[in-house]
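Sequence in, structure out. Go.
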Amino acid sequence: MKRSIPIILLALLLSSCSGWTINPLPGPTPFLPPTSTASIYTPTPVVIGANTSTPSISTLTVTPTNTFYPTNTNAPFSTDTAIFTPSPAPTNTPSGPAVSIKILGCNTSIDITHGMGEVTNAFVTVKNIGGVELTNIKTTLFAYDEGREHPDKTVELTSLPVGYQVTVKLTVDSTYKQETPIQVEATSDQGTFPREGLASCSDIGIFAPDPDALNTPVPNNP
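Output:
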């Protein structure tokens, strides 16, 4: 029995289909480094603070740094809006005595009553523009070619209240048919005021004041 076992093994070897009497042992497999499994990357957006189980979208909130108010064109009308009322312009009224002298015009005449030839008559308005009443106010006319002193050279009034004016007629002896430069001066108990003058007093013509209105104080005209 023991001898039959090797014979059976030999028969199996000979009946192999490869045709080899003895099949060679397989050679060693060349060494290859182990290949790692390739990683697959999916472009999934990363959301900070989001739950991994439930996707969420964060909302960006912008806080304005400037506060805008409606302009006058779109602001609602309010009856409570204050209405601007301009203040009246201050007037430069002197606190002390002051006058304004205006020469309205002149004319000439012949004064026979006082034994004079041609005389020049000037119509003058004096205004009290100061802050005090003027007392014993005198208005005097001077002429460049003046001759003898005329009795109507100066007109005196007892007083001229604040805010009042008076028109007077003053007369000087002057040269016949000559242009006469003149000056007018006003004085009072409160002082002497600057003179007002003309190089040539124009003819007042028909615009001469009413004689009945002379030497009477009236409120100042605007």
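Check: Strands lie at 99-110, 118-128, 134-143, 154-160, 164-173, 182-188, 191-192, 196-198, 218-219. Residues 70 and 76 are 9 Å apart (CA to CA).
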